[in-house]
Amino acid sequence: VQLEQSGGGSVQAGGSLALSCTASGRTFSTHYMAWFRQAPRKEREFVAVISGSGTTITYAASVKGRFTISRDNAKNAVYLQMNSVKPEDTAVYYCAIPDTERFFSKMQDDYAYWGQGTQVTVSS
Q: How confident is the model over 62-86, as a mean pLDDT?
């Protein structure tokens, strides 16, 4: 299994960025898919998670109302649209998938598959 991320980069505060993550080697249409991030000198933290059907979505309080997670099961992909970004959103962002179907978690230790990470830098 491989998760290939794309997108990210640098943007000014208030701007937008989009991240993509495509899985290969296995179909994940019934798995939750999530995004995490790790800022410099901080622990990796949960950002958002979406169920296989897309009907159950949970966001971290810090991004709710600004970020949107979505998925395309035909492409085995998950996306993160980041709007109204803030300097504190600066981090390396990771997509992640647990090994178990229909398993919901906001804990990174519950995720088996990880993308390579994408840097997002927000300047003030």
A: 98
